[in-house]
Write a structure and sequence with these properties.
Shape: elongated
Number of helices: 1
Structural class: alpha+beta
Radius of gyration: 17 Å
Order of helices and strands: EEEHE
Strand content: 35-45%
Number of strands: 4
């Protein structure tokens, strides 16, 4: 909370759900490493990580 001129403002903390893709080019362990790094970056930006998920796909689909 920030008190300014007797007006109290509350800042909402943002939340994010992190999603990664594992495929032949990016194996599961590498995708997991990338998500861990992304979670750390989100934390430094004061974003709460609500969860994470790695999906195994042959290739990324444009529609999703």
């Amino acid at each position: 909370m920030i008190e300014k001129n007797r007006l109290v403002l509350q800042q909402k903390q943002e939340k994010a759900y992190l999603i990664g893709i594992a495929n032949q080019k990016t194996p599961y362990l590498k995708a997991k490493e990338y998500l861990e790094e992304l979670a750390f970056l989100a934390q430094t930006a004061s974003v709460i990580t609500a969860g994470s998920f790695i999906q195994n796909l042959d290739r990324p689909h444009r529609a999703t």
